[in-house]
């Protein structure tokens, strides 16, 4: 916005400024935008209508809707859509639910709360591949993992998490990574709650639980919707955690849309099919973004 | 209906004592104002009565019953906060009915009580609005309505008018006094604004650093301040305080000598008088008059014309500043010499410790 309005307002102040100079000033911004977004988008669209498989370099040319037809008739695609929704939905529920409770907890003064806050937020600073590896090998591995050792200590058989509960395991890892984000935003929101409001509620006879539901939760509404929007945008594209732990398996149990596109284009070398998946992902993300942004914009007005 | 009694109430944070033993009785239907400079502990004291702060030691009695260990909701009190503390996501109706909802009062009765309070406060057109859609004065009334609906034994107000502009504050003062009369309720009100204290209170409690300096009716505090602090705090413009020395007794009077050598004859204090004793002479600005034959000589440094009144800022010959309050039509101009006379009956004497030396024959109070 600013790159567009700033030169325009300048022009208003100096009517003598020639139109060419305005274009000159706007060119870098427009150029970067073009290179950064429009070119890849157009290329993806273009490839999605091409016969373009690196295993068959001789088969080329316009494919029409063949790539799309192949995609929607592939059961893997629908499974990946469901997986994407399950992953996003579960992680949202866990991070927002747990994040709200933790935020209420961390809002209380207690000994060492500063250190505890830093520790609680630190998972966010671990890169996804590393945290996935840590969970895979140190926590969930049936032989070397902490959970396996715990099960042994209790005399129970160790669980092979990624083989038996693959989606659950991925959800746990991603939720662990995103919980600090939710906590951080919700905690700052809780801290902005007027202390006199809580005291007024106490005077009005609201106990801790009533205060949570009638005062704190409504106050957090806006922050929660921001968390949901930001997380949804990032969770639609979860890739590293799946790549490092399950590689989309077993079967297609943990293949989400992002991983499906990767597999199509770079494991099966079907660039055209992968691009078709990419276009579907773009459409999907935009639909989600449209509804989220609209609902949040309405909340922010209130 | 509801009386309040504080017996040697104390409050400490770790080893730091902020409320240092307060004894106070609030009678039924009394309007009591806690007043004092910021940091004097007046808000803390109110919050202790409300139950929002723990009482370190001493007893708090409501209707003769000790309530130290009873939670804020069960003391039967209602509080109006400085920031109003309205619940922003609830409508005015929900805000006012919240306490009843928490107490599981049936919906019909709740509606009836909210409607009744809204009628008293003229909030009926706004019942379905949210706090942000209301003006400051309306929010203030909602906060009061929230208190009224609970039908509390005692109303507590924590500087409720300090966020309003001057005109609205004057209007709300009158409304609060009217409400106090209409509800016939016991009210405790905290403010740092002495105008609010003087105009609304039946009884003013002047606090300073966690101690009660004086308790009394507004005019009692004005005309018979117990010490220098109260004398300086109550009254605007402030009382003039001049260092002086007692002289000889002459019949029912005593001679007082100012630093500059001026001698004044004042009514004799009731206690023993020692010639040479250092004292502070307190003179209200309205007890000074321009008078060509007056005993005090000085120069007018500045003139503040308020319309109905004029304030003269006078420097005495020894440099001591004085404020003189005279009629608005007075023609005295700045940078002219002036002589002042004193209404001896309206003077106050304070000993070296700042305690008042009450005159033998005291000024009668209006109330």
Automatic annotation (TrEMBL), chain A:
Keyword tags: Cell membrane, Membrane, Transmembrane, Transmembrane helix, Transport
Domain ABC transmembrane type-1: from-to ranges: 81-292
GO CC annotations on file: plasma membrane
Broad class of the protein's primary localization: membrane
Cell compartments where the protein resides: Cell membrane
Gene3D superfamilies assigned: MetI-like
Classification via CDD domains: TM_PBP2
Signal sequence interval, chain numbering: none
Ranges that cross the membrane: 23-47, 77-106, 118-135, 170-190, 275-293
Topological relation to the membrane, as annotated: Multi-pass membrane protein
GO terms of biological process kind: transmembrane transport
UniProt cross-references to SUPFAM superfamilies, sorted A to Z: MetI-like
Transport recorded as keyword: yes
Residue ranges that the Swiss-Prot or TrEMBL entry lists as coiled coil: none
Sequence similarity: Belongs to the binding-protein-dependent transport system permease family.
The protein's name: ABC transporter permease subunit
TrEMBL record, chain B:
Cellular component annotations (GO), alphabetically ordered: ATP-binding cassette (ABC) transporter complex, substrate-binding subunit-containing; maltose transport complex
InterPro entries: AAA+_ATPase, ABC_transporter-like_ATP-bd, ABC_transporter-like_CS, ABC_transpr_MalK-like, ABC_transpr_MalK/UgpC-like, Mo/tungstate-bd_C_term_dom, NA-bd_OB-fold, P-loop_NTPase
Top-level taxon in the UniProt lineage: Bacteria
Family (UniProt): Belongs to the ABC transporter superfamily.
Protein name: sn-glycerol-3-phosphate ABC transporter ATP-binding protein UgpC
Keyword Ribonucleoprotein: no
A Pfam family recorded for this sequence: ABC_tran
Keyword Phosphoprotein: no
GO molecular function, one term: ATP hydrolysis activity
Keywords: ATP-binding, Nucleotide-binding, Transport
């Amino acid at each position: 916005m600013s790159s567009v309005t700033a030169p325009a307002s300048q022009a208003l102040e100096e009517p003598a400024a020639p139109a060419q100079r305005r274009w000159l000033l706007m060119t870098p911004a427009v150029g970067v935008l073009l290179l950064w977004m429009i070119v890849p988008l157009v290329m993806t669209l273009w490839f999605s209508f091409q016969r373009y498989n690196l295993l068959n370099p001789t088969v080329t040319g316009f494919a029409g809707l063949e790539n799309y037809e192949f995609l929607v008739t592939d059961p893997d695609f629908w499974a990946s859509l469901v997986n994407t929704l399950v992953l996003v939905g579960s992680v949202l529920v866990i991070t927002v639910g747990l994040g709200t409770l933790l935020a209420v907890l961390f809002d209380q003064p207690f000994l060492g709360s500063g250190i505890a806050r830093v520790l609680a937020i630190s998972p966010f600073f671990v890169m996804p591949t590393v945290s996935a590896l840590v969970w895979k090998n140190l926590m969930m591995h049936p032989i070397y993992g902490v959970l396996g050792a715990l099960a042994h200590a209790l005399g129970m058989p160790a669980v092979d998490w990624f083989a038996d509960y693959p989606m659950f395991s991925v959800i746990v890892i991603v939720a662990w990574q995103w919980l600090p984000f939710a906590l951080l935003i919700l905690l700052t929101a809780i801290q902005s709650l007027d202390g006199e409001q809580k005291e007024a509620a106490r005077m009005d006879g609201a106990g801790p639980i009533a205060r949570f539901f009638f005062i704190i939760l409504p106050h957090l509404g806006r922050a929660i919707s921001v968390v949901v929007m930001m997380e949804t945008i990032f969770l639609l594209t979860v890739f590293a955690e799946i790549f490092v732990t399950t590689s989309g398996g077993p079967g297609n149990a943990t293949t989400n849309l992002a991983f499906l596109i990767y597999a199509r284009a770079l494991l099966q070398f079907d660039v055209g099919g992968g691009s078709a998946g990419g276009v579907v992902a773009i459409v999907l993300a935009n639909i989600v973004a449209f509804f989220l942004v609209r609902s949040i914009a309405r909340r922010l007005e209130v | 209906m509801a009386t309040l009694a504080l017996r040697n109430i104390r409050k400490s944070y770790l080893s730091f004592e902020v409320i240092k033993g307060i004894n106070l009785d609030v009678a039924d239907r009394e309007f009591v104002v806690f007043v004092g400079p910021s940091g004097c502990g007046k808000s803390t004291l109110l919050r202790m009565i409300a139950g929002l702060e723990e009482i370190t030691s001493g007893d708090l009695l409501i209707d003769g019953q000790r309530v130290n260990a009873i939670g804020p909701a069960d003391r039967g009190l209602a509080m109006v906060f400085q920031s109003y503390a309205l619940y922003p996501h609830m409508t005015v109706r929900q805000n006012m009915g919240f306490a009843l909802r928490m107490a599981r009062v049936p919906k019909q009765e709740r509606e009836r009580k909210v409607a009744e309070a809204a009628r008293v406060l003229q909030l009926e057109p706004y019942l379905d609005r949210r706090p942000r859609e209301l003006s400051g004065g309306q929010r203030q009334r909602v906060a009061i309505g929230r208190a009224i609906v609970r039908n509390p034994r005692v109303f507590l107000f924590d500087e409720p008018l300090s966020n309003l502009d001057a005109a609205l504050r004057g209007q709300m003062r009158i409304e609060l006094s009217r409400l106090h009369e209409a509800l016939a309720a016991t009210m405790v009100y905290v403010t740092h604004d002495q105008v609010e204290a003087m105009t609304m209170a039946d009884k003013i409690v002047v606090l300073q650093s966690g101690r009660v300096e004086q308790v009394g009716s507004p005019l009692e505090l004005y005309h018979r301040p117990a010490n220098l602090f109260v004398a300086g705090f109550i009254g605007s413009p402030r009382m003039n305080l001049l260092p002086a020395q007692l002289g000889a007794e002459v019949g029912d009077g005593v001679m007082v000598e100012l630093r500059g050598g001026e001698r004044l004859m004042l009514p004799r204090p009731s206690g023993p008088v020692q010639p040479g004793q250092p004292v502070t002479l307190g003179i209200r600005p309205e007890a000074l008059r321009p008078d060509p034959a007056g005993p005090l000589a000085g120069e007018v440094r500045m003139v503040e014309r308020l319309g109905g009144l004029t304030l003269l800022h006078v420097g005495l010959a020894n440099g001591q500043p004085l404020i003189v309050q005279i009629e608005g039509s007075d023609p005295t101009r700045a940078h002219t010499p002036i002589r002042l006379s004193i209404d001896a009956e309206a003077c106050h004497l304070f000993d070296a410790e700042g305690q008042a030396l009450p005159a033998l024959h005291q000024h009668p109070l209006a109330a």
